[in-house]
Amino acid sequence: MASTTRQRLVVTVSHSLARPRATLLLLAAVLTAACGGQTAVAGRGSAPVSTPRLASPAVPSPSTSAIDPEPSPGSSGTAEPSAPVVSDPMPDPTPKPPAVVKPAVWSKARMVINGSCSAPVATVDGAGSFHVAARCGMGIRYATSKDGRTWVATTLKHPAHRFDVNPQIAVDGSTLYVAFTRLRPIDGGCGDDGLADVGVYYRTRRVPDGAWSAPVRIGDVGDRLQSFRVVDGVIHETFVSKDGEGPVSYGRLTGTRFWSVRIPGAVETSLRIGDDGLARIAFSAGNKLRFASVRTDGRLSTRTVFDGGSMQVSWPNLVLGPGNRAYVSWGAHQPWGGGCAEAEQTVPKPGTYFATDANGSWRVKRLASHVAPASLVVDLGNGSVHVVFKDRRSIRHFVRDAGGLWTNERVPRTARLDEVTLRQDPANRHLLLVGSTWVEDEPGSDIVAMTLS
Fold it and tell me: What does the alpha-carbon distance between residue 156 and residue 172 come to, in Å, rounded to a whole number?
């Protein structure tokens, strides 16, 4: 009976040679089962032997089949055949096209503050809202926006017969600060602007919707504000005393205790506070750009970053990156008013410059031959640096990647934009560009904003 069954199955298999390979394997399995599932092993008669199964691959390929392993070279005995594994091949998934990454695009300019305004400043709070302040007429106007598109502006009131100028803006936690210099008119004389410095003041409000506090004075009568920061409730400033005649000093207000230290040779300053709560100051000193750190004992340690030779240094702008590494921009140009330049110059090329000590020592680069005030930010997400300034045609946007490679482009529709300041929302890394729209023969102009996202 078993012999007859084998003959029928052999005939069946012989008639199935033209069928698909999967069918052949299935029939072979049936044939093995019909033979009692036993395989003769040399020298052991017909004792039953268990047949191992090979694990099928996780994603079988159409060209892959299960093959019995061959004996290793030098091994004795006959390899035990395993039952074939039959599985329908899974087709490869259809490949998806790579996601299209849209390049970042500058938005059109949107109105922030309407009026005869100048000297805009900006900051971003912890919730990602933008805040802008500017001098408008005799006082200061302030505007805020959650997205950089829709702005709400208000005027900060000031006493009659007083001027509030040179605003600075800072945020500390949920408290927003606007600081400024207050002036009063006097009888002017030859070379006198007819204004006297009343002192440096600041006002605060809780974000997002708190009311403004009354003005509070910092320091002495006659001080003039240059730069302003607040960290952990401590107010830091740089200022010029004696109605702008000097000297320039750094001041710190902790509670009700105020103290200051003179910055030797400083003309213009830019202030930032490090992770350690201590101030860093980039400042121009004639033909040099210098960098100062406030020590724990309150004194300054200074070093020279750039020597312009016969040129004059102006508009220092400082930011701090991780580890309190410094990034600073400035302009180097021939002294205002002309005159004879000395023959010997350390750096004979005027222009807009950038320097950083991110690699442990200061490295200086001239970004462009055009001389202009610049604004910059450090992207903490990818380590890049963004620098913007106005040349003769429009706003130029320079980008330095984490590897130190520079690229630049022109920001579209910015031929009339000036006095630019750049900020970044650290959450989504969108850039905010704020500036004044220049109008010929006008003392000031509208303040507008553009976003890069």
Answer: 20
Sheet hosting strand 385-390, strand order edge to edge = 374-378, 385-390, 395-400, 406-410
In this prediction, residue 57 carries a pLDDT of 39
pLDDT at 337: 64
pTM for the model stands at 0.75
Burial (0-12, 13-18, 19+ Cβ within 10 Å), 45: exposed
> What is the DSSP code (8-state) at residue 106?
B
Of 81, 140, 78, nearest to 115 by C-alpha is 140
Which three-class secondary structure state does DSSP give residue 82? coil
**Contacts of 180-183 spanning 24+ positions with Cβ under 8 A:** 180/140, 180/225, 181/223, 181/224, 181/225, 182/158, 182/215
Q: How far apart are CA 122 and CA 435, in angstroms?
A: 10
CA–CA separation, 142 vs 164, rounded Å?
13
The parts of the chain modelled with pLDDT lower than 70 are: 1-102, 187-193, 337-347, 442-444
Angle at alpha carbon of residue 207, lines to 201 and 208, rounded to 5°: 140
Tell me if residue 10 falls in helix, strand or coil.
helix
3-state secondary structure 343-375: CCCCCCCCEEEEEECCCCCCEEEEEECCCCCEE
Within 68-109, strands assigned E span none
Angle, in degrees to the nearest 10, between helices 21-34 and 2-14: 170
What are residue 358's phi and psi, to 5 degrees?
A: -60, -25
Determine the Cα–Cα distance for residues 380 and 429; give it in Å rounded to an integer.
9
